[in-house]
Design goal:
Helices cover 41% and strands 14% of the residues. By secondary structure, the protein is α+β, with helices and mostly antiparallel strands. The two termini are 51 Å apart.
């Protein structure tokens, strides 16, 4: 029996060479793949969450893997319907989430491993969601590094993408490269397994199982057709020209400025130089120069276009038509926008993206920020995070943490703050998170003071301040750890001790 790495390596090679994949179903009989799948799943919090059958990772063994393989070998495996629950969204709505049984999770993880190994080498470089080595930051870095001079942002959001994937389109996409009827039938049965909502059974006529292990890679396979359309049709059509033609007015002023400098007319020279810095050196309306750039994270897409707004509207219409005609999907009308890059800001992956413009910021005699992409922390995001720790506009204590040890309280606040700051470290105005730092630090001190029936001033005085730069959010790279008695740990600019009568709860 081949090792799991050997099997996956062969599939990667076939995918890289665009060779068809045959007899993929036989790989489901390899116990090594199930051990690899188990190693990836068992530590997840959801592994102990029961599905419709009540089965969890507890009691996992090689005998159970053998029984699963035997059922698959005789083609008697049946997917169980997932238990559906709802989780709240930021806009007040609820997102459906399916909880499959452990056996289904294990088989779905093996399917995901096989599909990811084969399709990952073929995916577009513009896709960053649910892919190894990629994520939100890789997508944002690509925008910041290569989208200079963008005029319009076309923000695209597919309405209910994961719940609207057409099963026939999905199976046709898989069948183009996978020539194995048994494996394709297994995938179709997984898509149509249905779900239990308050125990009545409901069929799934479209979409991939939300919360299913294999759903992310299936959605990437489905939306890879969108990536191909944009990269092979739209980008070549809306990209032309090597560089913009020179701006004649700019160059006339430039040579007039040089002549004034040669004559020694300093007042005229300064006046012409000031006028020159208000003009672009190349023609921004050059009809022979166009650029279209594209990035996608899951079902969120962003296109950057250099050209007139009429053509940006045309790109948006063609994108919507392709999704509707070929993929049976619809763009969300509320979230699909055309944004002017200089005067407005596009929203993508929780960031605000805009293009800078300034005629006064000069570096080495050149305007250094014109056309440069800027990533910003949205003010609404800061206010939303702060609201979790505010009451009537002021930082408040968290009474539900009064029973926890001091060390755990500090660890919880530190982990939450660290996660927010580290996600927004790409922003040029990350310093705005200092307000969140103050709100969370004050809430932490009030929580500790309320637990020990003390005051915030007394708590801050007893812990002692620790000097830290206030321009950069503190605690972005620090984590309170379990430390021995007599030592200190910190959160932001406040240090805490493990000894003393106020910390007896730590030694319970």
């Amino acid at each position: 029996m081949q090792s799991a790495e050997t099997v996956l390596g062969v599939l990667r090679d076939r995918g890289r060479r665009n060779l068809p994949c045959e007899e993929l179903y036989r790989q489901l009989f390899n116990p090594q793949l199930y051990l690899l799948a188990y190693g990836r799943l068992y530590s997840n919090q959801g592994s102990m969450t029961p599905g419709a059958t009540g089965e969890t990772v507890d009691g996992m063994s090689l005998d159970k893997i053998g029984r699963v393989i035997d059922v698959l070998r005789h083609e008697r495996f049946r997917w169980s319907p997932a238990r559906r629950v709802y989780i709240p969204k930021k806009n007040g709505k609820r997102r459906p989430l399916g909880l499959p049984p452990w056996r289904d999770k294990l088989v779905a993880e093996v399917v995901r491993l096989l599909l990811e190994a084969y399709y990952e080498p073929t995916f577009s470089d513009a896709s960053h969601g649910f892919r190894p080595g990629r994520g939100c930051h890789s997508a944002l870095r690509k925008i910041a590094d290569a989208w200079q001079g963008t005029t319009w942002f076309v923000e695209g959001d597919i309405a209910d993408c994961f719940g609207s994937l057409d099963h026939d389109v999905m199976m046709a996409t898989l069948a183009a490269n996978i020539h194995d009827g048994r494996f394709l039938r297994l995938i179709r049965n997984m898509l149509q397994a249905g779900y239990l909502e308050d125990w009545p059974f409901k069929a799934t006529l479209s979409g991939s199982p939300q919360g299913g292990v294999a759903s992310p890679v299936l959605s990437n396979i489905y939306l890879d057709r969108l990536d191909t359309f944009i990269e092979t049709v739209l980008i070549p059509e809306y990209t032309r020209g090597v560089s913009r033609r020179p701006n004649r007015k700019y160059h006339r002023l430039y040579y007039a400025m040089r002549r004034a400098h040669g004559r020694g007319a300093q007042a005229e020279f300064r006046n012409l130089r000031q006028q020159l810095r208000a003009l672009p050196s190349s023609d921004p309306q050059d009809p022979g120069y166009r650029r279209l750039r594209y990035v996608r994270y899951a079902d969120d897409t962003l296109l950057g276009f250099i050209g007139p707004k009429a053509e940006a509207e045309e790109i948006k219409a063609r994108l919507a038509q392709f999704l509707r005609d070929d993929l049976k999907l619809e763009l969300s009308p509320d979230k699909t926008l055309i944004t002017h890059a200089r005067t407005e800001a596009a929203r993508f992956l929780g960031y605000e993206i805009t293009v800078q413009h300034s005629s006064t910021k000069i570096t080495n005699g050149r305007r250094s920020v014109n056309g440069v992409i800027r990533l910003r922390v949205p003010i609404a995001v800061i206010n939303a995070y702060c609201s979790h720790y505010l009451k009537r506009g002021k930082p408040a204590h968290c009474s539900d943490l009064f029973g926890a040890p001091d060390r755990d309280i500090v660890r919880k606040f530190g982990a939450e703050y660290r996660g927010i700051v580290q996600y927004y470290l790409l922003a040029s105005d990350v310093f705005r998170l200092t307000r969140l730092h103050w709100v969370m630090e004050t809430s932490l001190l009030k929580t500790l003071a309320g637990k020990h029936r003390s005051t915030v001033s007394a708590m801050a005085a007893s812990t002692g301040p620790r000097s830290t730069p206030r321009s950069v959010p503190a605690c972005a790279s620090r984590s309170p750890q379990s430390v021995p008695a007599g030592k200190r740990w910190s959160y932001g600019s406040v240090a805490f001790r493990c000894d003393g009568p106020e910390d007896r709860s730590d030694h319970r």
